[in-house]
Amino acid sequence: MTITVALPDGTERSLAAGATAADLAASIGKRLAADAVAAVVDGREVDLSTPLADGQSVAIVTRQSPEGRDVLRHSTAHVLAQAVCDLWPGAHYAIGPPIADGFYYDFSLPGDGHFSDEDLGRIEARMREIVAEDQPFVREEHSIEGGLALFADQPYKVEIIRGVAESAPATESGEVADAAEGVAAGGVSAYRNTAGFVDLCRGPHVPSTGRLGSFKLMRVAGAYWRGDEKRPQLQRIYGTAWESDAALGEHLHRLAEAERRDHRKIGAELDLFHFPPEIGGGLPVFHPNGALVRHLLESYSEQEHLASGYQLVWTPHLAKSTLFETSGHLGWYAEAMYPPMEMEGATYHLKPMNCPMHILVYASRARSYRELPMRLFELGTVYRFERSGVLHGLARVRALTQDDSHIFCAPEQLRDELVGLVSFVLRMLGAFGLTDFEAEVATRPDKFVGDEQEWEEATSALVEAVEAAGMPYVMAVGEGSFYAPKLDIHLRDAIGRRWQVSTLQVDLQLPQRFGLEYVGADNVRHRPYMVHRALFGSVERFMAMLIEHYAGALPVWLAPVQARVLAVRGDHEQYAADVAQRLAAGSVRVDVGPADEPLGARIRRAKLDKVPCVLVVGDDDIAAGTVGVNWRGASRPERGVPVDTLVADLAAVIGSHLGDGPPGKVLG
RNA sequence: GCCGACGUGGCGCAGCUGGUAGCGCAGGCGACUUGUAAUCGUCAGGUCGUGGGUUCGAGUCCCACCGUCGGCUCCA
Q1: CA→C1' distance for A386 and B2 (Å)
Q2: Nearest to A77 by CA among A227, A252, A225, A215
């Protein structure tokens, strides 16, 4: 008696009746059997111990696949919960899912206890004991009532079971599950280890704890039950888990690399900016080098906008509260705005957005359809009272400068305008060496204002724009802001992290709130459409991203110091100054240092300062009118380069916005 | 705002179970005159985040506050 199952590669395999997924893996190969952590049978993830039936299609899930890693992480989370329950009898465990790069588990400890960092070591030690014991994960099926009885002393589990039982009364499908927690309409599933630890769970899990091991507990954190700050705060433990120690090591190495690139650290090292406590949290000051980088970003942005049909405007930083009542900001975001200031009987607020001001520019006189689309642009600094816990260097501040534009257009111009905008975004960001984008179209949220039909139209216009640009995108259902759908553009940096930068929003509300109009060709008044958009997002955040993307080694056109001239000996200093003078005349930002230390030490300092082009001049150069050129990223310096050639190379690389080195000698 | 951790000269750190602060880098000065990632010497610099408390005595212990970091929530 045999059964036949279909494999992903299209072949079939015969097995003895009663064979499990693990048997199948073993029959295919030793390596596969060792790497197997779960299986997919007819599209459903199951344990390896699942018996197979004739005619099923089966795929083995290996530990190094994305799905396999999730299984490992999920199983490791169970072991974490088991260890915590061993060490804190009476602890309640809530949920413990796999996440990107790892897992977490949420607990509440008896007596309102908290985990401290020292506890991680004890917990991890207990986890390693559980792994060493190689306890099997055994699946159990229970009725809803049985599940409630089983977890009678676990209030969070009871809440999960009740929640599903109530919201999805016994239907045929049984597929309505709660957050992968093992509750379906018909019953609950759980996994038990020999030690008596049992957890509500959909599975699948690895066959036994011995399959785990390449994990590390990372940190403790507070986390609200069900993500709701009105509910109790639980104690969360984060961990990371991988298929091998090597993969774990690589992950830890990536974390170290991210730390090395931290813009807050580099910002201090390169003397770019800091956050004086005397000024207040989230309020940066830019030092000369940082302000120079800002200036370069901003002036480039203004120049590109002017060349692309935008008009510059300038608006003040505060306004009467009545303006923000009209715009609706006080209604929706009052708690995130700075509190009111009373002056001469009126109430003023710092502006949290530029749009109301730009609208007043539009509304300053009657507008004709001939003026549309009207694109107003401002590097506008806005103030938002971000909660203290969310501040994060330049990436999240309380005073930020948006490269903000508001475009007023006729409804029939919207599509073309959006398509043009997306290509403008790509061109602008491309100038910074950024090319790896992904868009997200955020649709109507539960809480919204306006007409559903208009929401649909605006949303589809955004989708058309992103499709026309050929940019990959995903839909973010319900993630739009209350007044508008939006198109967010994310990019991936040099180490694969996602940053949200540009955002385009089709505003359905403000033109109406402010009663905006234009006179059409038909001599009738119409309401314009309005698009909000920022390309950098905020100048501060964009700088943070650039610094981390480039690990401080900004592209030559953005480097505060583009070239440094070093004299080999004191009596070469005059020639060094002459060379610097010639570079400066060619609009290169150059400095020159004294020969007060061995050359190697001065080279090292220039490299640490991330100077893209280090120039060394000595006897040979004075004789020949040349320089020694040490480009950042080059494997070796080049001797005897004529100064004119160098000036031309620098001008070319600066003009091209390339990263390191002159065109034709691409370095990195 | 909530949970946890951390605050020692500009930066990075040491300072054990309490006995009146130390190192490296950076900085000043002097010497060295250097051909591609750290020359040597010397000097100066800290009321140990702030305010209370315990103690004969607090950088070390306790409390409060401020700030930073990691998360949660939030992000127009």
Answers
A1: 15
A2: A215
pLDDT tens digits, one per residue of A556-611? 999 999 999 999 999 999 999 999 999 999 999 999 988 999 999 999 999 999 99
> Would you state the structure tokens that stand for residue A111, as one six-digit string?
């007596």
**Is the Cβ–Cβ distance between A14 and A4 less than 8 Å?**
yes
A177 pLDDT band, cuts 50/70/90, is very low
Could you tell me the distance in Å between the CA of residue A641 and the C1' of nucleotide B34? 21
Residue A127: count other Cβ atoms within 10 Å of its Cβ. 24
Strand B contacted by A570 CB (< 7 A):
yes
Q: How far is CA A479 from the centre of its chain?
A: 15
A600 touches strand B (CB under 7 A): yes
Helix-, strand-, coil-residue percentages of chain A, each rounded to 5: 40, 30, 35
What pLDDT, on a 0 to 100 scale, did the predictor assign at position A629? 96
Known active-site residue A486: yes
Strands A215-224 and A233-241, by their bridges, are antiparallel
Give the integer Cα–Cα distance in Å for A655 and A666. Answer: 15
Task: Give the Cα separation of A207 and A188 in Å (integer).
Answer: 19
DSSP A441: E
User: In the numeric block, which tokens belong to residue A335?
Assistant: 């708690």
The whole-number Å distance from A284's CA to B20's C1' is: 38
Question: What is the mean pLDDT of the segment spanning A458-477?
Answer: 92
Q: Is the CB of A264 under 7 A from strand B?
A: yes
Structural domains in chain A plus CATH codes:
2-62 (3.10.20.30), 67-255 (3.30.980.10), 269-315+354-549 (3.30.930.10), 556-656 (3.40.50.800)
Mean pLDDT of chain A: 91
**What global pTM score does this model have?**
0.92
SS (H, E, C) A360-390: HHHCCCCCEHHHCCEEEEEEEEEECCCCHHH
